[in-house]
Amino acid sequence: MQLRSTGTRLATAVTVVLAVTALGAGTLATAPAAFAATSATSADQATAGLPVFPEGSELGGVGTSGFLSYSFAPDTTRELTWTPYDGGAAVPLQDPEGWATGAGDVVVLGDASWSADSRSITLRNMADPAAPAVSLDLGALNGTYVAVLSPTSVLAQVIDEVGQSELHVVTKDGATTTSRKIAGLPADATDFFGSPAHDGSVLVGYETGPEGERTGGRALVDVAAGTVTATYASPESGFGYGGLDFSGTHVTWFNYEAGVGDTITSVDRKTGEQKKTVLGAHTDEWYSSLVGEWLVYGNADHPAKAVSLTGGQTVDLGVSASGSAASSDGGAVLRGSRAADGDGLFRVAAGADGAPTVTKIAETGTPPVIVQPLKIQQVHVPDSVDLDKSGGKVTLGWTLSRADAYLDVTLTHIATGKEIKKRLTAPTAGTEFSFVWHGEIEQADGDVDAPNGKYAVEAEATLLDGSGEPAYQGWSMNLTRAYNPHDFNDNGSTDVLYRDPEGVLWREDLKDRTPLYGEVSTAKNTRIGAGWGIYKQIEAVGNVGGAAHGDVVAVDGSGVQWLYLGKGDGTFAPRVQVGTGWQIYNKIAAGSDLDGDGRADLVATDSAGVLWFYKGTGSYAKPYAPRVRVGGGWQVYNHLAAVGNITGTAAGDLVARDTSGVLWLYQGNGRGGFTPRVRIGGGWSAYSQLIGADDLNNDGRPDLIAYGTSGEYGAYVYRSTGDATAPFRSRQTTGLFRYDGLRYSSVA
Predict the structure, then answer these.
(1) 3-state secondary structure 264-299
(2) Quick one: CA dihedral 6, 7, 8, 13, positive or negative?
(3) Pair 15, 1: CB distance under 8 Å
(4) Which end of the chain lies in a sparser environment, N or C, as judged by fewer CB atoms within 10 Å?
(5) Cα separation of 552 and 545, whole Å?
(6) How far apart, in whole angstroms, are the C-alpha atoms of residue 159 and residue 188?
(7) How deeply is 739 buried, as exposed, middle or buried, from its count of CB atoms within 10 A (0-12, 13-18, 19+)?
(8) Contacts of 269 (CB under 8 A, 6+ apart)
(9) pLDDT of residue 634
(10) Coil, strand or helix: which one is 505?
(11) How far lies 136's CA from each of 105, 155, 190, 368, in Å?
């Protein structure tokens, strides 16, 4: 983090890092006092009288403690603002694709212009604007938004594995997202939409019936119990119209009837009596809200009225309004004007006698200029990311309260302390500062793939003019990739081991993300240590010691087999003797799971041409079970390589090169043996060594490296195809061992 502060503040930053590392994935860390954003500039905004509804704005929704308004900036972006009724400071919100309100004072910010299409949503509890936002990825559940239930939960339509729609309560508690199905709905119900939730219930609409004969339905849902408590029939779905509402006495929904116009259907919850109230022509843009037993309705040309759904009497509310919004407390808010007190917002509620009362709650005018303190309002950092499933990248973002700032981001790998730093400048629109991280760490000698594991993700925002205190947030994220048996430093990419003429062993780290038809590139070579000249064979064997990382086996001139356990940081634990008598073997190949038990095995050929199978045990003290004879005649081969499961069959495979330079494929049969060999092609004598290198381009199949040629290219890559008759594509050049193709005596 690029701090422009004193040593005391730097010490505080270290404390923050340590605090974040102790948190679970996705936990939001509270900033220490030294990092707290100042909240001055808002004290003078709380003035006597009513709050101000911004001139030229539209009503975007209401809560129990405030209202939402929106307008369009000159650049056509929407300016969304929450204004509390109590005179507190208005709170600008970022420009979302779409939004909804409900469940008290919760604002739902979605990724689609129509909220029912939203798959990624953010919940802001505006009763406490400083509280962290809650992000829900409904797309991960194959779901879309239906209604908000609380500051941490929503109703969602989830499509199951057979394509059937289900209604679920989706809740996020800390880093954990849960989903539970609502019971009691028709099995073929779909196209769900919902009312504002209150009193523990929500009214949902849906469509049901056979194709071509679909009809509508309504259901009152007890959220806590997760079940339907009442159902109502409707000729049509009403999906897209909305109008769902309910009170202690009635449920209502909107309908359109050709030749009649817009109507509201109401059902008495006690008697079951159904009524239809005609609003008027569909083109007249009617609004309606339910307040107790009263239906409030009107449009810009017809002053608001309230009709009793029980007694039938109609009351003129005295407000000329252009729209209304229902509140979770059972009231409604009209946007319009009244002769007695002018333009603004008017609340309609049930009085002591049950009749509707009208109270002005906001004045229309020019609101005071909001000088927003600098805050990090939302963190868009996933709790966990699998780079092999995300295409090798992840977008990290932070929504700030202001755009006139820059953001310093630091990702710290907890286990090693390795850091990634990034300074973000303001976006062209909005206040979300973000960047795409490709899973790399920048170093002076080149970028390398970042190691897997948990990261502390810190963000510090600073105003461009340097005023005030920076705003800080701490988060954590877990980075994962698929296991790679040829990965010794736990960053997902293949590592190649090689011994130089002086007996020094080196590790070359390849790039994890290689374009499908691009050249495999190297990231960094690292010296492991000297003294490896005593071994006649060195082999990368995958995980045979029971840890999570690849290991190495070496056989010395006396036939003693030694195991070097990988530590996951590119180094190895001190060697352990695991066998003797290995001088009888002239070739070994390891790393493939040949019997399908999930552990890497080893094969070896003796001087008589017999191939022996050593089953992996998973124990570092005795990594291989006693040998089992596979078959004879293997003296015709001068090189073997375990290449993993390149054909997608029962188990790992083996390639063998004969003395004429022909390469043969032996597919593992899952029992430690092989199916009949398949000829791959000739000319392979051009190489001194073949290395089963695991997956070099992240297509899910292991690949092959061929080493040992003169000239510019010392090694070539053969990508696997998955086809047993032609398992490798044409060779591709690589930066690996460029101009060093004849230098190394052992490559693994």
Answers:
(1) EEEEECCCCCEEEEEEECHHHCCEEEEECCEEEEEE
(2) positive
(3) no
(4) N
(5) 10
(6) 11
(7) exposed
(8) 230, 246, 248, 249, 250, 251
(9) 94
(10) strand
(11) 18, 11, 21, 33
3-state secondary structure of 238: coil
Q: What is the DSSP string of 194-212?
A: EPPPBTTEEEEEEEESSTT
What are the beta bridge partners of residue 345?
335, 362
H helices present in 544-690, as ranges: none
Backbone angles phi, psi at 282, to 5 degrees: -65, -30
Residue 437 has what DSSP assignment?
Answer: E
Measured torsion, CA atoms of residues 251, 257, 260, 261, in degrees rounded to the nearest 10: 80
Given a contact cutoff of 8 angstroms between Cβ atoms, the answer to whether 485 and 493 are in contact is: no
Q: Would you call 7 helix, strand, or coil by DSSP?
A: helix
Amino acid at position 600, single letter? A
Q: Are 332 and 275 in contact (CB under 8 A)?
A: no
Amino acid identity, position 416: T
Which tens digits make up the pLDDT trace of 51-83?
999 888 889 899 999 999 988 766 566 778 899
Sheet holding 602-606, edge to edge: 585-590, 602-606, 611-614, 628-631
> Identity (one letter) of the amino acid at 173?
D
* AA letter at 536: K
The string of pLDDT tens digits covering residues 303-315 is: 999 999 999 999 9
CB within 8 A of 199, min separation 6: which ones?
A: 248
How many C-beta atoms surround the C-beta of residue 6 within 10 A? Answer: 10
Per-10-residue mean pLDDT, the chain, length 748: 26 35 34 29 45 89 91 70 87 79 89 84 88 87 92 93 91 90 93 90 91 87 94 79 86 88 92 92 89 92 92 92 87 92 93 89 81 84 89 90 91 92 86 90 74 94 90 92 87 90 92 68 88 94 83 94 92 94 94 87 94 92 93 94 85 92 91 89 92 84 89 89 86 87 87
Identify any residues that bridge with 473 across adjacent strands, giving them in sequence order. 459
Place of tokens 């020094």: 504
